[in-house]
Every structure is written in C-alpha cells, then in structure tokens.
Amino acid sequence: MKIPVILVSPVLRGPALILILMLLACTAFGKRKDDVVVMKNGDRFTGEIKSLQQGELVFKSDYMADSVRLDWNRVERLDSKDTYIVMLSSGTRVTGSIGRAATAGEAGGEVQIVTANSTMQIKPTEVIAIQQHEVTFVQQLTGSVNYGLSFGSGNSSTNSSLGANVAYTTEKNSIQLNTTSQFTYQSKAENTNRRFTLDSQYGHMLTEKWLAAGLFSLLRSNQQDLDLRTTYGAGFGRRLIRTDRTSLLAVAGVDYSHERYSAQAGTEPVHDNAESLFGLTFSTFRFKTFSANSQLLVYPNLTETGRVRLESQSNVQIELLKNFFWNLQFYENRDSRPPINSPKNDLGVTTSVGWKF
Fold this sequence. Notes:
Elements: H1 3-8, H2 13-25, E1 35-39, E2 44-53, E3 56-60, E4 68-71, E5 75-79, E6 84-88, E7 93-100, E8 111-114, E9 119-122, E10 127-132, E11 142-152, E12 157-169, E13 173-186, E14 193-205, E15 210-221, E16 226-242, E17 246-261, E18 270-286, E19 290-300, E20 308-321, E21 324-335, E22 345-356
Antiparallel strand pairs: 1-2, 1-5, 2-3, 2-10, 3-4, 5-7, 6-7, 6-10, 7-8, 8-9, 11-12, 11-22, 12-13, 13-14, 14-15, 15-16, 16-17, 17-18, 18-19, 19-20, 20-21, 21-22
C-alpha cells in the first residue's frame, strides 16, 4: 500500500497531527452527573448534558452505554448547574448555567441563562448551540475524520482519500481546521496523482452580526502541476442567516499567495500574488439523517489583472449509525490564467465513510 508513505511525507503531516488531537480530545475531566432533562412526552433523564448542535441535545446518563441525541424542540424542562457556552441566533455567545422550566399555560417556558453578572430569559428557538465550558483547550475540540478507498480492475487503479476537521469555539473566538489528502495510483502509468489541502479559518466576533476573519491554506495539486500554494488572508465577515439548522456567512478581504509550480522551459515556477477575497459559507442540517455544507471562495488577482482563482468545496453527509456517516464531497479549484501551461481546472468527487466526535 502507498498510503503510509503519503501520511508521513512532510507535506501531509497535517492529517496525522489532527488525528492525534482527535484522540486526545476524547479524554475529558468528569463533570456533574445531576443534569435533568424532561421531554414533552414525560420521559425524564438524569445525567450529563454534553452539547446542543444542529437541533440535537446530546445527553449521557450513567446507565446509558452511549450518549443519546434528543430533539431540542421536544424538550419540556431542563436544569443544570454546570457552566456552558451558549450561542444565540443573534450571534451572541454567553457563558453561564442554563435552565428551562414549564410555566402556567405553556408546554415549556423560556430558557434561563445565569451568567456571572446577570440572568437572561430567552426563547428556546433563539438557542442554537450549547457547548460545555471545559477546563482545557483540548477538551473543547470537536470534529470528524473520514476515509474512502476504491479499486478498478480494468486499469488496475487505486484511489484513496482521507479527510479530517477539528473546531474550537469560545465565547468570542472560533477556530476551524480542515484537511484532505487524495492519492491515485495506476499500474503501468508514468505518474501518480496526489492532492493535498489544508484550510484553517479564524473568527473573532465584533458584534452580533460582524466578525473579523483570518485564513491560512495550503494546496498541492499534481493535476494543475502545482507543487504548493500558500495563502494568507484577512478580512471581515457578516452572518446573513443563523438558526439552529441553517447558517450563511459572507466574507470579504485581501490575501497574499505564494505559488510554486513544476518547472517548465521558458516559465517562472515561483509566483507571489496580492489578491482580493470574497466568499460564502453555507451549512444546513436535518435532524438525525442529513447535513450539507458548502464554501465558495473567489480570489481576483490584484498583481496580475484579469486572473481570477476560484475554490469551492461541498459535502453531503448521511448518517449510517450513531456518530458514523457516509460522506459525498465535491471540490473544484479553477484558475482563469495559470502562469504555466497547465490545466485550468482541478475538480473531482470523492465518497467516504467517517466518524465524528
């Protein structure tokens, strides 16, 4: 197998590092086990509230072998003395204990958040995420890993794909790291095809809607004869839509890219560019079964007028078993005017099976 060679190569050490962080993330200090959740049908749970994401309240009791996922819209009452980071549909993040109790004449009352300085009463529909306020950085990591492998006997080709992502969120800041590694080998062929991406994004909330954003990315694509492109960018973003199921974020800014292409006669393999940056990030989720996310980034070149780069990636995930999913990914990297004689497009589709934590 060629895969171990890819993972230990200098360029592809990112996926291995992420996998190590994922293993560390699974170890957490114990928290209180007396949280109470009561559902509208009368079911009562006592244990530990893990999180609320995409309309699912993750809960674990001592008598449960695994955590259960409860529909947030069907929660009647909730009580916890632990501290959580609570994200609201307005974009505000607050840190405090949470509770929800039925009131006279209502099926379920407002959510109460008790912070160090105040007490907030908000509608349940305004709460879109709850995350435990852990002690260490590693304990607050969330993410997933997926892997796909296919073989074609007709041309003796092997296709391998590995993907992983890790996210970290606090009251004001968020960091997300995504990486993919793809390898295609065909017997009796002169060249194999390798593709590697590493994308990191940082956001700092300025107001309920606006945030300051930064990005760093790496791209290697044999398809485009691109040995490595490094991009550093910064700008501002605005949340256009933010609910418990759907999110839409727009970003604009500037960036610097350093490119190194395969050497060709009469061409310069190394290029430095100043670019403007425009992007959209979209995600949606349907309880228990389906989620989709997509990102589109456009880079009009400021150094070389008329050249425009486009990066897009979309993922569709369908749940197979608890925390295991089937993933379908579409990706494209397009360059309207490559600096060497190489294909303008690098696009493809991959399928894989993954696990999330």
